[in-house]
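Data card: per-record layout.
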Amino acid sequence: MGSLASEPPSHGKKISGLLIKRGFNNYHLIAPGDLPNYTDLATSTVSQRQIISYHGTFSLLHHCLQQLTGDIEQLNNQGQSCLKVFNVVTLTQGKDSVTIEWVANAVNDMYADAVLTVILQVDSNPAAVQMTSYKRGETGVFKQRLVKLLKETYGHDNVAARADQISVRLEENSALINTNTKEIKCEDEFIHGNLLAMVNRLSRVCDV
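The structure for this 208-residue chain is written out next.
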């Protein structure tokens, strides 16, 4: 019902939505956006905010985040230095701390976890962080940075790199990424979309 019923279902086409019960035996599948129209419930947005202890320089943190992704925007909020990473996670410099904020959903939470990992690594041993540069256009650098991003996002034990391929395991699902052709093989559409976004972002940064 609702917007889900605007197109008739076809064989093999996936239909997803919210299953609601009305009365004793009536069940309806509706789109999340139709929830206020057919129920007394309403959808809402959850904003996450964490304050992380950090004693290093903000410029060092900026540099290390650039090794993770080139999708970083420098901002200034009422005199405070800020960074927007992946276009969804905002970092604000504080006194011996960094505040990270993002709108909660499955994809944004994944990006926030990756950013949080970098902050904790830099704060634990800033002297060990080497200011390295990379040559744009090298697929080897692209592969190294992609492996690092995937491990920080999905866990070190779930990512393996062999020759020109990277494999990712996620519970009952798995994915295979060809670092030369950028082809991604994964049966799960949601995971495939997340991996494709990562590969495309990193490809633009490394010019490969």
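Known properties of this structure: Helices lie at 35-38, 58-68, 106-124, 139-154, 189-206. The chain has three domains: 3-37, 47-134, 138-207.

See the next section for split statistics.
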